[in-house]
Amino acid sequence: MMKKSQWNDDKIESLLKKMPVIESRTSAEEIYQHVELRKRKKKTTARWMPVAASLAALLLLVILVPGLMNQNQEEASNMASDSSSDSAEMTAEGGSEEEAVNDEAAGESEESQLQPSEDAAPAAEDEREEDTQEATEESTLEEPQEGFSSVVLGGDTESNLMTDQEALENASFDVGLLSEDGFVIPMTVIVPAESDRNKTNLELYNDWIASLDEEGLGFADYHPLSSNLTENGGNLEGTISEIEERTVGASSDILLDVLNETFGSSYENIRLVNEDGSLQELNQVGEVEQFNLSKDNHVFFIYQQNSEQYFYVPSYESYDSFEQAIGAINQIPNDRFQSALPDTLSLEAEADGQNATIRVEGATEDLTALEKRQFVESILLTAKSFSLDTVTFENVEQDFVTGYDFTQPVEVPYGYNKAYIE
């Protein structure tokens, strides 16, 4: 039987070692009695009893071992299957719990990013405040502290000319601004520092020109002209910045007009030199030892901006007398300038000493308040250009223009188109 099953002692011993421990609650006495009972039924002799017991035990082992082995294999397989199943369940449960923990942690992380903690919020606000403060400091270093604003121009009841009284109370300087369509507009700029009233026009220009918002007024960004202009009595000398760009084509005339309107009221000549002292060369002009500065003997027209603000502008041509200039008041040089004399009026002009007389002929009742103001102030500026002090208007009502008394000679203005730096 052993040969048929191909079992040997080594395999049996190996299998027995692998078998689980079998516990039995049957006592040794019961086993003995059971054996004795089997001995009586077979009625065997005492001499054969040990042999029979050995054979019975051997037979019992042969019968039980294969069954126990199969059972052990099934139990081991079931245990392995159960273990795998439990392991899978544990893995699944553990994985789901771990994923839930991870998802919860990720959710808390996202929530912490979307909703900063109370400790983090002040820090972020502090950083933003520091960044804002730094940006403000940088902006302050790069840009002028003062902004530019002007009086409302073109009003019926408000003049944009600067009076002698305002000149006594405020420091101001002249400047020629370049319009977008290439015309030079004379401006009188009032600065906020009263202590600057004793400074010269050049000193005020150097101190305040960087605060002038030319583009904010609708003009080109043309100033400052130079960083090293100096004055010697009635003369100026210095280097014009970016002179090649400023004198492209016919732009040399524009530069000279700007110099005239900026410094012509206070200085006689200007000498343009390079940093090494040599003369600067202007396109289409060449090298000139010095340029004469003059704002005298012109008639004034009206220049209307696209914003409907108006400015008084001088003629390109100069005239020999005040009377001649008034006679040319309708001779506008281009289609951007307008005459200040209404079509319904005609004038007779006469200058005597420091006073000029204007006799007005024609109907004035149909004129608007703005037309009346522009007419009067244009004549006053023309008289100023000829160094006259007053103008007497005849044949006009006492309240012809608000702010002026026509019962007596009217003083010429101190400055042109008035603006403020504040």
Describe the structure.
With 422 residues, the chain is of the alpha+beta class. It has two domains: 2-20 and 27-113; 148-224 and 296-421, no CATH class. Helices cover 41% and strands 18% of the residues. The protein has eleven helices and 17 strands. The chain has helices at residues 2-5, 9-18, 28-42, 49-114, 120-142, 164-169, 201-208, 243-246, 251-263, 322-327, 369-385; strands at residues 148-150, 171-178, 184-191, 230-232, 235-238, 269-272, 281-282, 286-287, 291-292, 300-304, 310-314, 337-338, 345-352, 355-362, 390-394, 410-411, 417-421. β13 (345-352) and β14 (355-362) form a beta hairpin. The termini are far apart. The model is unreliable at 1-5, 40-48, 83-125 and 131-146 (pLDDT under 50).
